[in-house]
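@channel anyone free to eyeball this complex?
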Amino acid sequence: MSSSWRDNLIRHIHPGEWVRPGLSPFSIVVIGSILLAVTVQVLETESSLTDEWRSVFSSVDLIVGFIFIIDFIVRWQFPAEPQYTGIAGKLKYLVKPGTLVDLLAILPFIIHPYLELLGANDLAFLRTLQLVKIMRIADLGPVSRGMDRVGRALATKKVELSVTFTLAFVSIVAAATLLYLVEATAQPDAFGSIPRALWWSLATLTTVGYGDVAPITPVGQILGGFVAILGVGIIAMPAGILASSFSTITIEEDSREKK
Amino acid sequence: MSSSWRDNLIRHIHPGEWVRPGLSPFSIVVIGSILLAVTVQVLETESSLTDEWRSVFSSVDLIVGFIFIIDFIVRWQFPAEPQYTGIAGKLKYLVKPGTLVDLLAILPFIIHPYLELLGANDLAFLRTLQLVKIMRIADLGPVSRGMDRVGRALATKKVELSVTFTLAFVSIVAAATLLYLVEATAQPDAFGSIPRALWWSLATLTTVGYGDVAPITPVGQILGGFVAILGVGIIAMPAGILASSFSTITIEEDSREKK
Amino acid sequence: MSSSWRDNLIRHIHPGEWVRPGLSPFSIVVIGSILLAVTVQVLETESSLTDEWRSVFSSVDLIVGFIFIIDFIVRWQFPAEPQYTGIAGKLKYLVKPGTLVDLLAILPFIIHPYLELLGANDLAFLRTLQLVKIMRIADLGPVSRGMDRVGRALATKKVELSVTFTLAFVSIVAAATLLYLVEATAQPDAFGSIPRALWWSLATLTTVGYGDVAPITPVGQILGGFVAILGVGIIAMPAGILASSFSTITIEEDSREKK
Amino acid sequence: MSSSWRDNLIRHIHPGEWVRPGLSPFSIVVIGSILLAVTVQVLETESSLTDEWRSVFSSVDLIVGFIFIIDFIVRWQFPAEPQYTGIAGKLKYLVKPGTLVDLLAILPFIIHPYLELLGANDLAFLRTLQLVKIMRIADLGPVSRGMDRVGRALATKKVELSVTFTLAFVSIVAAATLLYLVEATAQPDAFGSIPRALWWSLATLTTVGYGDVAPITPVGQILGGFVAILGVGIIAMPAGILASSFSTITIEEDSREKK
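replying in thread with the prediction:
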């Protein structure tokens, strides 16, 4: 009887144990709290909002903080996997990587009031640690299965992706070196050294193209044009490789289902 | 006899009932009116054009408004599906979602003159509602079948696309948080809070790269460079996933045709 | 005997008739002339170069002009297809579309000296017509076969590409309308009308992102962020569709070769 | 006995001969030296760093220079391929292309001190030659196999990629010509000649979009909008082609493995 009640609780609090489609009510509350916490963390950094909304932000912080603590304690005390039962298991649970994420998310909630009392406003950035809680979303049943499939897709083309990355790295350094050689005298601020030219080179080869710096000499613009065309290849190659690997994964799964 | 005349009319006014290739003359007139209405709506907001072209715009508005009303009335009175015949069916037709689009497109045409009489020029934006009529294009035979196929392609990779979206969302928030931490003091206007930094983060990770704001500190630029490279992945992943799903749909349809 | 000499000439002057791998010497000279003509046309518009290089440019213009005229005359007088032989065939050749391209490329060469004598420098832009000659490259054996294959790849996914184009068109107009509604008062120059907002909308949805105009109000930036994310989809959809269609073409050709 | 020791050495110094997974300790040291040399070369161009870090940079230069020389000498004296053994083979080794890369990487290390003594600081750019050493990474077992596979993927779609490149080239020239014709009078600096307009045309068609130059006339902006849409196609086509070719390579290799 007691065991059945416990089993039911475990199914509710561990997303991976939920047998019905969708998410358990408990998971929905936790996800909602995470999204709320992230939103509040993000908005709280904007001083023009904090004056008016301070009490709302504080209340939300308090509520989601308690939800995070309760969520952690129940998952700790009622683990789904047998290896985390018993005293030894509970200690083992405390040092597994997932727990670090949970504790980092709880930490700012606990230490923040003390920091405020001490006037340590410079440590306010510690609060952004709460954002790591967002990684809990990866635990959810469908997301977790999807992550797994995306991970396998990336793994099947590991070699091709490494080659693309190597070519991209060499292109970025080579483009920065060339532009440094031809533009350094014309624009010492933007191209006066290879590290400075790297900023332009990265923005161009990823096709971001901020435009805060751009070659102005004719030779620099001709080289810049070739670099921009190379950038199309650097976008197209990983897209093509990923397309091929997602197709392979799909075909493999389809043929497995038929068997 | 009368029924045959009615059947013929229904075939002309409902794009889905048209049996010959291409579009019925009635549909071509409606599509032409929609494109004309959209063009005029767009141009009418430009005050440098309205002075000279006012009468042309008004005439076009009047004509397409009447075409929209006639189009709605005949499709309402001569429905293709049996469930919309009879008094009860005609009332049911009025509350289906497609009707809302039709009525929103007609509404500004009807209420605009009254607003002008009342001098309520501030409500001119109501006219842009007419733009929703553009959604009627989705009703057209080929577009509707294509939409369906694109929809199925997206549905087969729902999980992978959700994972990509989640990763993109986490990356955007994480990039904004990091740049806020390192650039806030150097550029308080652009990176003084996470919501402000989000604008840069979005522009970079989508490779849009406006360049109105960009990191200027060395650490900010190094982080910005990694974010730009991450942006290539955020473009490449959905492209790869969609490529794979369109291939799957094509293979499925080909093997269905062979059977 | 004479016929054999004629056959040999025809094989040399019509790229499609060339039986050996690569291009005939005649075609190589024509292609070289086209690229040279294009380069000179492009450089001649730059006044800082014309002073110093005028005589070189004039000489090149003269030489490639004669090559274009000879190229046209021999292909006209020694046609590869039987339908263009005889007086009637030769007249028919003069009105086929390909001839228009040839004549447009020759025209500026013939009329330019007269325009210069008349002092009609305003008509200098007529010279750029010579650039259409570049389309002759599409006649080349491998390029022509490649064009054909790319054309078929695009044709197999005509419906999906039309849907993508329609969605992109609707997105561009909708994004411009929304930004016009929220940014018009803050930036009347850039967003004061939908046609003005279209410039921003196009630059964002294609991920070009010039940054000459960008939303500055909070609501405008939030909407702008969603538009930028939508832009990723507008890049990813055609890439995915084309990937799938090129795969289909490859599979079809492979299975045809096996038969 | 001596031969066995020699075989062992050859296995360690030639990445392609290494039989165990991963890289040999010797290769790891060489790769580490290359990355270190590249990093130092890049940082040394930044004058704000050289004052403080001069001695560190010099030490690293000295150490990696010796490692490069040793690496070259042992690979030269103990070649893996029989054709490079003996006096004749050793001379043949000196003129193969790979040796040029090695010597270019060693050269600046040897001649730099002499240049410094002569006060020829203007030749400092010679040091960047050391960056070519980065190409040695392509020799590594997995990278070399990956390069090979990426090369074959590109080769299977050579014709389609050439067509895409030709279309891109024609589009870039055509876009620059059109914008020159409509924007030259409004913006003589940016669009006063086709070569100048090419800079805008390249930035737009590759979706880089610096925004340093952009059309400002209504006609120029309408044309610019179409060019931006064309740019999406220029990104999507190679991505689609590469996706298809990587899929073909994967399918071929899978069917070869089954046999």
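from a first look: The first helix of chain D runs from residue 2 to 13.
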